[in-house]
Amino acid sequence: MAIEYIDGIRLYRTLTAGLRRVVSRQDYLNKINVFPVPDGDTGTNMAFTLTSIEEGIQDNIYSDIHQTSMAIADSALDGARGNSGAILAQFFVGFADGISDNKTLNLTQFAKAMMVAQKYAYDALVKPKEGTILSVIKAWCLKINELAKTSNNFQDSMRKALDMAQIALDHTPDQLSVLAKAGVVDAGAQGFVDMLSGIQDYIDSGEVTQVKLSVLDISQNVASETNEKYRYCTECIVVGKDIQRRTLQEQLSSIGDSIVLAGMKSKAKIHIHTDYPQKVFDLCKSYGQISGEKTDDMIKQQKDTQSNHEAIAVIVDSTCDLPEDLFELYNIHMVPARLNFGDTHYVDKVSLNTDEFWEEIASNPIHPNTSQPSPGTFRRQYQFLYSHYESAISIHVPQSLSGTFQSALTASKSIKEFPIHVVDTANGSVGNGLIAIRTAEAIEAKKSFDQVKKIVEKTIENTKIYIGLETLDSVVKGGRVSPTVKKIVNLLRINPILTITKDGIKTIGKTFGHKNKAEKFIRFLEKQLPIDKPFRIAIANAKVGDIAKKWEKELMNNSGADKVILTEIGPALGVHSGRGALAVAIQTLDDGLNT
User: Fold this and answer.
1) Contact, 502 vs 424, CB < 8 A?
2) Lowest mean pLDDT among 30-39, 51-60, 287-296, 369-378
3) In the 8-state DSSP scheme, what is residue 372?
4) Does the domain made of 463-588 have the CATH classification 3.30.1180.10?
5) Which of 26, 97, 196, 485 could form an SS bridge with 47, CB 3.0 to 4.6 Å?
6) Residue 504 forms beta bridges with which residues?
7) How does pLDDT run across 298-321, given as a tens digit for each residue?
8) In what order do the strands lie in the sheet with 504-512?
């Protein structure tokens, strides 16, 4: 029997079949991703976008197709990730607008709505590019529109339109030389065809079918050149009144490229490649309230995709403090926390660096707050790494201080095929930095996943952090210490020395007197250095670089340390430590790695 109409329930069921097909293909799509940047995340982004739709509307399914399509569009905007994800979101917004007030759609009405959706998808870009997902969307929509003039049969027309979409997909390397050079079709376009294929199989069989890989084995990397024009893939959502999308697009053009602006007058999803994420967020804030700020380091992603690396990935959150060159040297991935000064939000160490943080602290009367990365943020990171690594060690600040560990653990359970060991370090700052380095060294030594896990646990036992504060002002403002304790400490001229354990922040020692606090703290630490074991030490400072550098030189010359690492206290710890603080981690190396 021919299918002559669709309603909201049919739309949801068929779209679910399509999105599950894309999710099953995400590794393949990541492997063939070379445009606009070969960062290997198109599959992850499209899967995340479409999964967000399913999760967002499962309690909002109506027989009225207009209501269901509006719920789909809203969920797509909230969950859209990456260039192709943002274009897909705008496609669904256009489809919802094209439906108008219809409660069901015949093929003619469906075709009309799809032509609106196609126009919206093109309008989302300042400079639409053929040979991409746009070309396949256009070919499919035009074919549906042509067939609707002589047929009212959805099943037959969708099948013929899918054939046309496949032809358009096969033609993408003829339209983009970068695809021809790499010997692949466009990844976003392939994802759209995969979605249509999943929908068609469901229409034909009533079942969600498994996909078979084709064209190239996903274990093979596609040859492509690193694109370093811009570093960050930056996204956010703007909610406001009568958002002037075209004006916003023009203003964004001066900050970056690959701009996709999806949405409607009251809600917009922004995607842009840029070196200045905070400028993007500040500009968008002038159009309404922003949320969902996200930045991906595309250069880091391209290195994961294209270069040879170990089989096990190392992930930390941004409470881990290390010099940038060591993140690069040891291939450590960072998931950033968030900071906010009132209504102004930042992505830690991405849209707000350390110098900018201290300037903001000095001039802003509002004390900042921090918030952990969401499970969704970790899930996206893990899904991306799953395409390029065999397993992962995820290293995080303790549960007693932050929800970061729980976010990571929750996300890790959603990717059952990818072994992820989530670690509570009972540490922080440069302590987590030393643990991450030792983990990377174990991986470089070709230790197995289980062996690395054991070394990590021993390394945590061997690493202790000491924190010395200039004042207790910031920890009081942050609610970690009561004002009464501060008064007593100041009255008795006590300088508490703090450490981090699984149970939280504890006092591990003290010095006395208000003068030369940093020097007294250093003398205390020198007594903690191991005498009969190899060790390394890391120093982070909050705007007391001269003192830290002087001590670093002394340690390098006299202590016998295996490594001496110097860096700055990052914003996530700086919120609580305040200016003038020192954080020092000491790590012994009797963990069996070198035996």
Assistant:
1) yes
2) 51-60
3) P
4) yes
5) 26
6) 501
7) 988 888 886 678 999 999 999 999
8) 504-512, 494-501, 463-468, 582-588, 535-541, 564-568
Radius of gyration, CA atoms only, the chain: 27
CATH of 299-461 given 3.40.640.10, 3.40.50.80, 3.40.50.10170, 3.40.50.1980: 3.40.50.10170
Amino acid at 557: N
Q: What is the pLDDT of residues 492-549, one digit of tens each?
A: 788 889 999 988 888 899 999 888 889 999 999 999 999 889 999 999 999 999 999 9
The residue to which tokens 């300088």 are assigned? 495
What is the mean pLDDT of the segment spanning 256-272?
93
The pLDDT value given to residue 595: 61
Q: Which helix (H) or strand (E) holds 511?
A: strand 504-512
Q: How many CB atoms neighbour CB 97 within 10 A?
A: 18
User: pTM, whole model, 2 decimals?
Assistant: 0.81
The verdict on whether omega for the bond into residue 398 sits within 30 degrees of 0, i.e. cis, is: no
Query: Is the pLDDT confidence value at 281 over 50?
Result: yes
178: tokens are 């970068």
* CA nearest to 157, candidates 107, 94, 212, 199: 107
Containing 583, the helix (H) or strand (E) segment is strand 582-588
Residue pLDDT, tens place only, 2-41: 688 899 999 999 999 999 999 889 889 998 999 888 888 8
Q: Is 548 left (phi over 0), alpha (psi -120 to 50) or beta?
A: alpha
Side-chain half-sphere of 517: how many Cα atoms within 13 Å?
A: 20
Q: Where are the domains of the chain?
A: 8-205, 299-461, 463-588
Read off the pLDDT of residues 360-417 as tens digits, 9 standing for 90 and up.
999 999 989 889 998 989 998 998 999 889 999 999 999 988 899 999 999 999 888 8
- For residue 205, the SS3 value is helix
CA distance 594 to 438: 11
- With residue 298 as reference, give the H or E element that holds it: helix 298-306
At the topology level of CATH, where does 8-205 sit? 1.25.40
- The DSSP H or E segment spanning 554 is helix 545-558
Q: What angle do CA 315, 319, 323 make, to 5 degrees?
A: 80
Q: What is the spatial distance between Cα 404 and Cα 373, in angstroms, rounded to a whole number? A: 6
Q: Is 494 helix (H, G, I), strand (E, B) or coil?
A: strand
